[in-house]
Amino acid sequence: MSRTLHLALHPYGVGGPAQHGLWKDPRIAKNISTDIRYYIRQAQAAEHGLFDALFTADSQFVSAGFPSHYLNRLEPLTMLSAVATHTRHLGLVATASSTYNSPFNLARRFASLDHISGGRAGWNVVTGVDSGTSRNFGLDEHLDYTTRYSRALECVEVARGLWDSYEDGAFPADVERDIFLDPSKLHQLNHEGEHFKVAGPLNISRSPQGQPVIFQAGVSEEGRDLAARVAEGIYAPGDTSLEQAQEYYADVKRRAASYGRDPEHIKIFVHGDPVVAATDEAALRREREIFEEDHDFDRSLALLGRSFGAYDFSTHDLDAPFPDVAHLAEKGGRTGAVKLIARAKAQNLTLRQVVETVSELRRSPFVGAPQTVADAIERWFDAKAFDGIVLAFRVEDELNLFVDGVVPILQKRGLFRTEYTADTLRGNLGLPVPANRWTTGT
Amino acid sequence: MSRTLHLALHPYGVGGPAQHGLWKDPRIAKNISTDIRYYIRQAQAAEHGLFDALFTADSQFVSAGFPSHYLNRLEPLTMLSAVATHTRHLGLVATASSTYNSPFNLARRFASLDHISGGRAGWNVVTGVDSGTSRNFGLDEHLDYTTRYSRALECVEVARGLWDSYEDGAFPADVERDIFLDPSKLHQLNHEGEHFKVAGPLNISRSPQGQPVIFQAGVSEEGRDLAARVAEGIYAPGDTSLEQAQEYYADVKRRAASYGRDPEHIKIFVHGDPVVAATDEAALRREREIFEEDHDFDRSLALLGRSFGAYDFSTHDLDAPFPDVAHLAEKGGRTGAVKLIARAKAQNLTLRQVVETVSELRRSPFVGAPQTVADAIERWFDAKAFDGIVLAFRVEDELNLFVDGVVPILQKRGLFRTEYTADTLRGNLGLPVPANRWTTGT
């Protein structure tokens, strides 16, 4: 079977971590992040472009002192439920943390979204990089990295168990035999694990996809392992070289196979911020303009702390060598922290230089005229750097430029669908419907 | 100011506790409880009838052994978010438990619904009558009654604190002064109480209603106290006499006043299952038909246990005196349990007789031709038995009969609105927008 390219849209809104200055763009309404009509428009544009899914990031935390990331946003599951009834084919992937949610509530809400959307729900399982989140949930300290990942694995296992509570045909609704529910097709989970004790059954029937699609975003050792075990989709960071992306792709597929899974059943997306314009030159100009709009040293310094458990680097001398903060890496996003420390050490960088390196213009491979961007996508896709891209655009006009300019080229080359062939996210991603654990062949 | 009648719709679906046999009605699709189109249709019909709100009950539990209540339903907040974009004026009230949810997640999701709906969200705070719920959330035993109520009060206080995180005007988005968020208008809550420790701030701005409307359903001493302290709407059970309803109404309003609140700012709804038909006679026939459809001794016996911590009464001799189960009342819905025990003792009833009494036909005051039903509503409303009714109908035709037959009579008598005068739930209920605790007069 030939591989097919998948595309998802990540609607940025304003006030988020990756587009600091976006709110200043005169084309942007300042309150779009809480305006459901914005998300419905984005979703409909993505569906017009035959995208696989709308993808939403999330955090359950905003810093009172430096509230620059995931500030003032609609909660993903309520937002996507509203979007669901205004779309027909588009997958709806919500990020939700397994650290500060209970598996029963998560399983129920994603099953509900899957019913509401007719089989288009996906759950991007994260463990939470923002250490301050713990203080919104009664804990002084963020759970450590290892605990968070072991909890994530068990949380997905519990959710999947709950999603199997009802076998297909559990509701015969047979008036003559007076049977609404067939009790032999209803199963209690009775899970007792290290982190969770959940009896079940779930109070909502098996949803159109059997189970919502599981996404994961891990890049660390633990993250790759979790992804290979349970993920059906991966949302990998986009700021890597082609070679690094290939390494990640091959590694995760290999790990999945080592767990007895078909590597085809784990679709790897990378994040991409394409900049498309009429000419390559105009696109490069726009890329520089975006960089200038977002560039802010103080903000980069504050965001640096995010990878180290919300550590406040501003107390350090900017021109002294990068401080010894290795012990803080466990508290936040360990991979990013470890990478930064290694680079600072190898290149003997000061704190100021580390901040400047982090915030320097990263050349996206997807900048240029439509033809140029399509070429780059084809090259990376053919090189097995990804199965798909999660695309983010600054303004709706730029999303439309991609849909109307790049998509037709990808279609002509046979890389991308020319019509939806399925109404479910599983169907469009080429993922099988999981068998219900209780159903034995007849 | 003259009082105004309020109406809400409680869409039953099938498989719920109060309409056991409804799924057998040939006019009902068997899967309506998970079909978002059913809820959207119900909401639009309610809005066509100028109702104040759609009201959804909830439970986070279904019994594997006797799965007869709140079986297989969409989760309320995802469901109402989807309904929101298909309505413009109708309030959207979701039941959610303060026992098995965290206040940060609840506050965030209701604020999100309030943004999505443009100011129409309400939260019906319950503590959970189904003792088995605890086993879906890691606890062997359901929290006892007193703990649940003290937790509920604190949970609402935390949510309200989080909803005040951002003052009005917190987002000036002033390009010239380079200020997206004004940090002086963002506040941390730093709550530390008996049950919760929540730092905040919330990661979503103050919503169109300032705060979503708080509903409560308590009838016990603790419930009435909680309602009088924090509720802006009450959802009281409907199976009472006019005198009992008047006592409840006067008592809750008096208690609210004793807490320094304006009794007008707490709207008391009772549950009603009206049966409307062309003639009184036809309505009475239909009422009897519904009773026959729902009547089932074994099911009533099982449901009886719900008030006693899911106690299994089937192990007792049906014809012996009602067993001594007073010690179990703490585990479930205490008020109902205490009432049952008192009645059994006073009348010296057997277990069978208690079950039969519980499941006998209760004469709703709202059965008859449109004129008869309108008369009864007027009588109860004028007698201060309620400010509004939460109406439930078996099938959509019967909802339409009420909207087209009874509502115009209520309108002619000046009891009910002839058009929406507000786009928010607070506006339609005549409730003020709460002042933000951080905002001082200018």
Automatic annotation (TrEMBL), chains A, B:
SUPFAM superfamilies registered for this protein in UniProt: Bacterial luciferase-like (SSF51679)
Record bears the keyword Repeat: no
Pfam families: Bac_luciferase
Keywords of this entry: Flavoprotein, FMN, Monooxygenase, Oxidoreductase
The keyword Oxidoreductase belongs to this UniProt entry's keyword annotation: yes
Coiled coil: none
InterPro entries: Diverse_substr_monoxygenases (IPR051260), Luciferase-like_dom (IPR011251), Luciferase-like_sf (IPR036661), NTA_MOA (IPR016215)
Residue ranges constituting the Luciferase-like domain according to the UniProt record: 34-382
Family: Belongs to the NtaA/SnaA/DszA monooxygenase family.
PANTHER family, sorted: ALKANESULFONATE MONOOXYGENASE-RELATED, C2H2 FINGER DOMAIN TRANSCRIPTION FACTOR (EUROFUNG)-RELATED
Protein name per Swiss-Prot or TrEMBL: LLM class flavin-dependent oxidoreductase
Organism for this UniProt entry: Streptomyces rugosispiralis
